[in-house]
Amino acid sequence: MIMAYECRDLCKIVTTFLLNTCRLPPWPNIRDVQAAAQCAVLADRHLPQDGEAEFIFLITGSVAEFYIEPTLPHVGDIDVMYHRNTCLTIPRGHPPPTQLPAEFHNYVQVFEIIDSHFSSLELRYLLSQCSNDDGGKYNSFEYEDGNYLLYEPDNQDKIHGPAVFSDNSHTSLCMSIDIVFCVLCLSWPTQAADWRTRHRNYGWPDSATVDRVVSNGCDVVRVAHRQCRQHEWMGKRQWRLSFSRAEIVLLNSWRPTQQITYHLLRVYVKTERLTESADNSGAGTLSNYHIKTLILWACELKPRSWWTENLNLVKICDELLNTLSVWLTDTRCPHYFISNCNMLDNSFNAKTVARKLMFIDEDYLSRWLIHTYIGQCAQLCPDYIVRLFVDVSTSLKLENAVTAVVNWRLNTLLRDLDMTFGSFEYFIPTTVSRCSLTARSCVCWMSKLRKIDKRFFIYFSAVALLQVASKIPKTGFSNKLQYILSTVVGRDFIYCYDVSSRCKTEPNTSELVELLQKSAVEHLTTYRQLVARDFGSLRTIVTTDYEALYAYKRGDYQQCLQLSTQNVHRLLYARNMGPVPTNCPEFIQLMDDDIVSLIALTLIVDPECRWLRESSCIGQTTLSLYLMTQCQLKLRHSVTSLTHTLDDIEVAKRRHPRKYTLAQLTLKLIERKVHRTITILHQSSLPASSVFCS
Prior knowledge:
Layout: H1 7-21, H2 30-45, E1 55-60, H3 61-65, E2 78-84, E3 87-91, E4 107-113, E5 118-119, E6 121-129, E7 138-142, E8 159-160, E9 163-166, E10 177-185, H4 193-197, H5 207-215, E11 218-221, H6 234-237, E12 239-242, H7 244-252, H8 256-271, H9 288-301, H10 304-308, H11 313-329, H12 350-358, H13 362-378, H14 383-386, H15 395-411, H16 413-435, H17 439-452, H18 454-475, H19 479-489, H20 491-502, H21 509-535, H22 545-553, H23 557-571, E13 579-580, H24 585-588, H25 593-605, H26 613-616, E14 618-619, H27 620-634, H28 639-655, H29 661-683
Parallel strand pairs: 2-10, 3-4
Antiparallel strand pairs: 1-2, 4-6, 5-12, 6-7, 8-9, 9-10, 10-11, 11-12, 13-14
């Protein structure tokens, strides 16, 4: 109980907690990788049927807007907008553009935005790129009778506003996705012309940010006004202006306290069931967009001192919720970009929510944040920290409990980043294997991963090389595979292979497969070295496990034994969590028949384990033990040597939890092989070197 505490003390505790646990600067996280993966998958899934035309993708929403990393999850799904490179829009009355970015097609249809916030799009011009011109210049031709642009999603049952919802929770894509088709407008819309020029007393956003926002233009998305959705004509032809590009720029220019405030208000209205959701559709009034709009206005209308001096995040949230209560009472929510546009109308149950917000004050909100928000954060901590919150009857006990959460959060920064890389090593190959690569998706993968983290880019390149190598024996070195390979390693690689092939009567694709596998292993080894450099203080990471695996595959058992034995000695009693995604075709090609059969049997018995990292991966310790044992058997080692190996296997079995199904089965397999060989050796009077071991 914390009833006796002063409100100001609780506000101070909450503010200090939030400032110390919302991490800065941003770190690479698995959400960024998942968003990149979604764009790559969509690049192949949503292909226009008109020649070279294609879709351009933009990651929006929370993944793109937040640069803080709160303790509680703050990203519910991934938002992706995509537009055709064969059409765009212009504000009504504007001349058609004469020059376009390089991403656009040779022929582009131009639609005119009719009306205001909700508009119809009328076809007005056809742009044709000038011949022999590299500068993106176009000629325009006017249509006499323009049609209106229609867009009907394939799955009408999963529409949420302008988005088509895709639930990926049952696959390795653990976050769902909202996919929004849009039409790009390169010009800043006339409906928002006042935003650019309006007077700002406190200098936010500054002129450079305003210019950047305006230069990005906007989009229109296919959704009708709430009151027009059942209308036969307008329900199918209305589009809405979207300022997602502008919001990404503006929210990334916010101060950390402003991003924290946005996060807190989102958590509060969601926890208190004040927002629209699948299980709250009847009472739903607010959305995250209303909260975002509220804070955008506050950033512009409040002085800098309001956000910085005598900082009290509870007080800031309280005042903003009171402002929101007034808006809801008056049934008004002024659009941040468009003048005279109200985001609320009488169809909202606004006053019910307003009454709930009306009674909120600093004392209530500070206690709610202690009990609910910080309480949920504490549940993520070790048990000894959770137990501290059982008794917070004095201010000292409360401060000690909250401080323990803060210290845990600060001390787990590197560990959490390490876990991100562990998840990434599983996520990439399973996603690539499930969706398969094309040159188009490869470009998307590589361009986005390069921006996120160099190590991710190197690892993906290895997986891509392995996928090409796995497909060549089945399809030959097809044009599709050549395009993928040239995307990953460049055209020089293809050229060198072609030249060497022409020198032979029959080109040997097995040589190419071996070359690709070797190159992939070199990439994987480089990746291991970079990860070991950064996370070696947290756990023991060996960098030669893939080299040992490849040496075993090509029959160099002595080299494999040397590397694997060194790895076992380093890993056996060390903390090690590095996964090897053995159940993916890209990696299976590096395995021997015994372990491939074991993987297949595991998947036959339980197909769902394909998506469970613990069940479908083996760690570096297990892989190294397996390779060491196999090499000892093939090289006919003595009973003494094999007995020591049995001891190592027993240690590894004890250290692997039962949930690591494939790892446990692999250890049992090699244990049985060793026992069988030792039995044969004991029963034979011949020396070990003369006994055949399989």
